[in-house]
Write a structure and sequence with these properties.
Length: 795
């Protein structure tokens, strides 16, 4: 139903855009007759109109698009095709433009980027890596600069001033993760001058499915350091190697959930001479053991990470690239180091985090481009409220996609791959071999070496010339082995004589976890109407089937029929492959949906906390603001220690007395004279009034000193308790899976427990600010305090 509605809506929008394209084309000759200076003048005029509320970007979009097309012709000699104008109009409206590889998506982005930049609120163009951000900011940026706009580049390791300059530009290019990290860092600074971002406005995400779908499961985390027991990591790593699956632990390959069995728990308890692993006093040991087990079972060398120069370097499973500077938090990274026998680094703990999903949902208008968005149209609509519009191609796609060749054994599959390569290589046809891991790419490379066939290998271990290697992949006789979508964003042009040989031939050695990524691999061939072909070679031993459909696989293997080369002949095999991939996609979607719900709780906490912190940081706080924190803290404290309708015997007199006297320096409570909660409230109210008078009667210089000191103290308090809150939330999440067995909604319980936790955190922040204010006041004004103490002492 949703897909049918989306198709109808998409077709309607295309018709609207086609009418606008006619209007844009009608202006082409007008702008051709303008001088360069006259073209720039339009930018200044339109900016002023929008600023004065005399026009909107939608009033000006036809003229703006025609102007950008003319500028592109003058700067690069490239004229936007009509279908590129349609793609740009779709982006301007906050949609996802689906355009196949080679349709010039990068040039398309110049149209809405310029038009939205006229508002003066900033446009962010997100790419999947630094190379593409640099390339696009330089190439497309020339068009914008020609028209009088400023262009910035936001990449890691820039200074604060360089970051500010990049963000203050009309159009800013960069990597999505860096924009997210800047958001987190802006909410950790101690001075407004250190903040670099402007309010969110409009973003265009190139390869949007890679950013919002593939990377959605990996949150952005800024971590602090805390001490760790490296010897315990090593001890647990060695110990866990003795564990056996299904005996000592259970592992569900589909969900990647892992848990100790009763035998496993007993084994740990015997080894460490303890009675109960789950006792509170042994939670640290459990943490180390659990991380060691996860490191041993879930993380595979040359698949999930590589070891280079004595360090663990994580691999992005969707691009095959090294995730520079990224590490796992909460001790898991150190557990992997211990597994590999490496020196342990300092353990990280989270001080700030946000998911990619919730970061980009903060943009009022979000748009994106991809060659493969329709398969995830439902998720884009539900999570981001974005329609996927399939843009017509400039030339028809004539690529031949062969039916999957499926074999019983991996060895038989690889033999067929090499045979295909040899046959096509003999006539000079270029071949791109896509693999799902470093290990798989190296196996294929070894087989080609045995056949004395030359090739170029591109994986996380060899990325120095990535774009250059991918660009050469279409040359005659070239063989390129690549992990996943390495080189995505770089076009593969066919060399001389290659079209006559059938164009680029793409080979996939396994189906990916999503059909969308398979389509991306196929899409490397047959760009812009070029000839090309694709062929996937699979085996029933592939991880996709073993992990996601192992029960049906076991039954299928028993009835499988093969030819002399091991190729499966059963007519139902293609449906089995498709069904398994859909199962996997459903599982991945459920994981992203689950994580979004979990982070939705943290996101609301983050919004409130960051708003509180920014108010503290940016605005000039005064004594009124500080005493407001005291008022709210005292009200909550009285409810805690002297609740309504309670009796004296229920009170913790000593704790209540101590807690309240810390908040109000002149307060002295004689607990023997308190008969009910009203007495406590009265005593505290009188003391609070005296305290406020003392604060307000401080001379102005002393008052300024108190406020100035408290501002930075309060920021430190917020950061300290927010970090602790994130740790507590993580602990809640780790225990949430147990709730599923109690027939309760774990998300609802997490929301409830998380809310109570946040209330407690906020109370502690306000209390700590109030206690520090009292302490500061005492330090600065002891004589005044001593004179007043007799008025508020109750005996």
């Amino acid at each position: 139903m949703i897909q049918s509605l989306q198709k109808i809506i998409g077709n309607r929008k295309l018709k609207e855009y086609e009418k606008l394209v006619s209007d844009i084309n009608a202006l082409e000759s007008f702008f051709e007759d303008q001088t360069d200076e006259a073209l720039r003048e339009f930018t200044y005029t339109w900016k002023q109109k929008i600023n004065n509320n005399e026009a909107t970007i939608h009033d000006l979009k036809v003229e703006a698009f025609a102007l950008v097309r003319e500028a592109s012709k003058r700067v690069h000699g490239m004229r936007h095709y009509d279908v590129q104008l349609i793609g740009g109009l779709s982006l301007l409206d906050g949609n996802i433009s689906e355009m196949p590889t080679g349709e010039g998506k990068t040039l398309v982005s110049s149209l809405p980027a310029y038009t939205r930049a006229l508002e003066g609120k900033g446009v962010h163009i997100i790419t999947v890596n630094e190379y593409l951000a640099r390339r696009d900011s330089e190439q497309i940026g020339q068009i914008h600069e020609f028209l009088g706009l400023t262009v910035g580049l936001n990449i890691p390791d820039l200074s604060i001033e360089e970051k500010k300059s990049a963000y203050n530009a009309d159009i800013t290019y960069g990597i999505g993760t860096e924009f997210g990290f800047d958001y987190l860092r802006d909410n950790m600074v101690s001075s407004p001058e250190e903040q670099v971002q402007r309010p969110f406005n409009y973003a265009i995400i190139d390869e949007i499915d890679s950013v919002l779908i593939d990377e959605a499961k990996t949150p952005l985390i800024i971590a602090g350091k805390k001490s760790a027991q490296s010897h315990l990591y090593l001890l647990c790593a060695r110990f866990i190697r003795t564990f056996k699956r299904d005996t000592d632990y259970l592992y569900d390959e589909e969900s990647k959930a892992i848990a100790l069995t009763e035998d496993g728990i007993s084994k740990v308890e015997r080894a460490f001479s303890i009675d109960n692993l789950y006792d509170l006093e042994h939670m640290t040991l459990f943490h180390y053991v659990h991380n060691a087990l996860r490191a041993e079972v879930l993380f595979e060398r040359d698949v999930d990470y590589i070891v280079r120069d004595g360090e663990i370097q994580l691999i992005d499973l969707f691009t095959g690239r090294i995730m520079e500077g990224r590490s796992l938090s909460n001790g898991l990274h150190q557990a992997i180091e211990a597994k590999e026998g490496l020196e342990s680094t300092e353990e990280n703990h989270t001080v700030a985090s946000v998911t990619i999903q919730n970061y980009f949902r903060m943009y009022p208008i979000l748009s994106g481009m991809t060659g493969t968005g329709k398969t995830e149209a439902k998720e884009f609509l539900q999570v981001y409220n974005m329609e996927v519009i399939q843009i017509p191609t400039n030339r028809p796609v004539i690529r031949i996609d062969h039916e999957d060749a499926i074999f019983a054994k991996t060895e038989q599959k690889l033999k067929a791959v090499i045979t295909d390569v040899k046959t096509r290589h003999a006539k000079g046809q270029p071949i791109l071999i896509g693999t799902t891991s470093i290990r798989q790419s190296e196996i294929v490379a070894e087989l080609l070496e045995k056949e004395s066939i030359s090739f170029q290998l591109l994986n996380a271990k060899h990325v120095e010339k990535e774009a250059e290697m991918i660009a050469l992949a279409g040359q005659k006789g070239m063989i390129t082995i690549s992990t996943n979508m390495a080189g995505r964003g770089t076009d593969i042009s066919l060399g001389e004589g290659v079209p006559e040989l059938g164009g680029l031939h793409v080979i996939g050695t396994e189906r990916h976890e999503s059909e969308r990524i398979d389509l991306q691999l196929k899409g490397r061939a047959g760009r812009q109407g070029d000839p090309g072909s694709s062929q996937f070679y699979l085996s029933l031993e592939d991880e996709l089937f073993v992990r996601y459909n192992h029960e049906k696989l076991e039954k299928y293997v028993k009835q499988v029929k093969v030819d002399e080369n091991g190729k499966v002949l059963n007519s139902t095999i293609q449906e089995f492959v498709s069904t398994t991939q859909r199962l996997c996609e459903g599982n991945q979607y459920s994981i992203r949906e689950w994580q979004l719900k979990l982070d939705g709780v943290a996101n609301e906490h983050r919004r409130v906390m960051y708003e509180f912190r920014n108010n503290l940081l940016i605005n000039d706080i005064d004594l009124d603001w500080l005493t407001k924190q005291v008022d709210q803290t005292i009200e909550k404290s009285l409810k805690i220690y002297y609740p309504e309708n309670s009796v004296v015997e229920e009170w913790d007199q000593l704790e209540g007395k101590t807690a309240l006297e810390q908040l109000i320096p002149p307060l002295r409570i004689d607990t023997e004279h308190l008969e009910d909660e009203q007495d406590a409230w009265q005593v505290v109210s009188e003391a609070l009034a005296v305290y406020k008078d003392l604060l307000n009667n401080l001379d102005e210089e002393l008052k300024e000193s108190v406020v100035s000191l408290m501002k930075y103290t309060a920021l430190e308090i917020v950061d300290q308790y927010w970090t602790e809150h994130l740790d507590h939330l993580q602990n809640l999440i780790e225990g949430i899976h147990l709730r599923q067995y109690q027939q309760e909604d774990p998300i609802r319980l997490y929301e409830f427990d998380g809310f109570k936790l946040f209330e407690t955190t906020f109370y502690h922040i306000q209390r700590e600010i109030s206690v520090n204010l009292a302490s500061t006041f005492q330090d600065l004004s002891n004589p005044a305090l001593e004179e007043e103490e007799e008025h508020v002492f109750i005996d």
